[in-house]
């Protein structure tokens, strides 16, 4: 049996097949890009209709528990499946470790998981791109993350202001959680992870493709 793992996000589709990771922007994605597989397992937080032409697709949902992971949500099915899969992948890669998982993409999310696998809950905020397009008057697609304290024109003031806002909230969340959990390990993922890591005040570990790795984990438990 061959297995294909799909992660349909807000801006891109990623997949994992035969030991390799692949990616296409939503605007460029066609199912013809995908390899043939006997079974497809998918995480979808965006548009499921992108996969309408495919057969044998199993869409994963967030459960209350998985191995030693225990969801903090009173209605665990409402926890974003991408967050759930990222957490179980992080637990697998960093066992017996308090973890703060930060996903910096279209949304900026934080999830705290203790060494025993107990999810403590999380936060959801606009990511950098979403934040910069949130105010029509100043809307910008800039990916610059310059932390100047002032700007001498409106576009710079907006770019610097949103950059400082994003970095301030990330640094604050890390500081608050580290005060309670001194051995906390910070995992950073998502499309903006690399440029954010360069500007953080704290040491973090970048781990990409966590959703796909989580899909492989949960699938393995179903077929073994």
Structure description:
- It is a single chain.
- By secondary structure, the protein is of the alpha/beta class.
- The protein has 2 domains: 3-59, 2-Layer Sandwich (Nucleotidyltransferase, domain 5), CATH 3.30.420.40; 65-216, Nucleotidyltransferase, domain 5.
- The chain is 29% helix and 26% strand.
- It is built from 5 helices and 12 strands.
- It has helices spanning 81-93, 128-132, 154-180, 193-197, 210-223, and strands at 3-8, 12-17, 20-25, 39-44, 57-59, 65-66, 69-70, 99-104, 107-113, 119-126, 185-189, 205-206.
- The strands form 3 sheets. The protein has a 5-stranded mixed beta sheet, with helices on one face.
- The protein is globular, with a radius of gyration of 18 Å.
- It starts with a strand and ends with a helix.
- The model has no long low-confidence stretch (mean pLDDT 95).
- Per CATH, the class of the largest domain reads Alpha Beta
Q: Supply the CATH superfamily name of the largest domain.
A: ATPase, nucleotide binding domain
Strand content: 25-35%
> What are the segments in which pLDDT stays under 50 over at least 5 consecutive residues?
none
Helix/strand order: EEEEEEEHEEEHHEHEH
| Computed structural class | alpha/beta
Question: What is the subunit arrangement here?
Answer: single chain
What spatial form do the alpha-carbon principal axes imply?
globular
Distance between the termini: 12 Å
Tell me the number of structural domains.
2
Q: Strands of the largest sheet, in order across it?
A: 3-2-1-4-5
User: What is the helix fraction of residues, given as a range?
Assistant: 25-40%
Tell me what the CATH architecture of the largest domain is: 2-Layer Sandwich
How many strands, which pairing sense, and closed or not: the largest β-sheet?
5 strands, mixed
- Total helical segments: 5
